Automatic annotation (TrEMBL):
Annotated TM spans: 12-31
Pfam families, per database record: Peptidase_S11 (PF00768)
The species this protein was found in: marine sediment metagenome
Similarity remark: Belongs to the peptidase S11 family.
Name of the protein described by the UniProt record: Peptidase S11 D-alanyl-D-alanine carboxypeptidase A N-terminal domain-containing protein
Keyword annotations of the record: Cell shape, Cell wall biogenesis/degradation, Hydrolase, Membrane, Peptidoglycan synthesis, Signal, Transmembrane, Transmembrane helix
Length: 267
């Protein structure tokens, strides 16, 4: 896609908003007024914008134009932003989201998640999706993978196929949830994740779930209240999508925002 830099960020307060809250800005100045840059990361980066993030990108959701970026093609650990891809692959391969399944031994336990699954727990596929996307439950994504493909390994193959179809050509995924202690090659880039995020947000069910601040799921008919890990949903114009953190990855976030005719994906 072509790369565009807007003349005046004050005319696009949502961009400033995202830069502040998502990319941990220290200082925000004006961009050079009249430049239209090429596709290289060096060309995209403007040193007048001081950010802590090693890699970042802002993309126009409608056109795919890159509005700003820093090292956006650098391979990084994506942490739980991985669940964007695993969830959309699951969604596209499930016919009945109200179907109740049993949690396998492999998908049981806490696994760095908000609460523990027990072997034999009964939960709907829809509630597994909510657990994966709203509270970033790692084993929920494993259970979805096992339902779709019978095992995680075959499901991950579907994830990598889908990533390439979307255009995320530099990415390679080794699991469904982004835990990377034993998966050194599980990596993506900011621009690849932006492409994945944009694709996912075109799915009605996906976009509804990731824009949900609080919800209730049922495990064995017992209601459990869940709260979205994405606290940016508390702010105007933010409509999703996914947070992530591991020691290797650091803090990660993919965000969809819209105001009037401006729709952005920021990673």
């Amino acid at each position: 896609p072509s790369v565009l830099i807007y003349k005046n960020l004050k005319a696009y307060p949502i961009v400033v908003y995202l830069l502040i809250f998502l990319l941990l800005f220290s200082v925000l100045f004006f961009l050079n007024p009249d430049k239209v840059y090429g596709d290289s990361d060096d060309a995209l980066y403007d040193d007048e914008i001081d950010i802590v993030a090693e890699s970042a990108v802002i993309v126009d959701y409608e056109t795919g134009d890159i509005l700003w970026g820093k090292s956006s093609s650098k391979l990084m650990y994506p942490a739980s932003t991985t669940k964007m891809l695993s969830s959309i692959v699951a969604i596209e391969n499930i016919d009945n989201f109200e179907e109740i399944i049993k949690i396998s031994k492999n998908a049981s336990g806490r696994n760095h998640s908000a609460f523990r699954f027990r072997t034999g727990d009964k939960i709907s596929l829809l509630d597994l999706l909510k657990a994966a996307l709203i509270i970033s439950h790692n084993n929920a994504s494993i259970a979805l993978a096992e339902y779709v493909s019978g095992n995680v390994e075959d499901f991950v193959k579907l994830m990598n196929i889908k990533a390439k179809e979307i255009g995320a050509k530099k990415s390679f995924f080794q699991n469904t949830n982004g835990l990377d202690d034993n998966f050194p090659h599980h990596k993506s880039t900011a621009i690849d994740l932006a492409k994945i995020a944009s694709y996912c947000m075109k799915n009605k069910l996906f976009s509804e779930i990731v824009n949900t601040g609080e919800d209730t799921i049922k495990i064995n008919d017992k209601e459990i209240e869940i709260t979205n890990t994405n606290k940016l949903l508390n702010y105007d114009y933010i409509k999703g999508i996914k947070t992530g953190y591991t020691i290797n990855a650091g803090f990660c976030r993919a965000v969809y925002s819209e105001k009037e005719n401006l729709k952005l994906i920021t990673v």
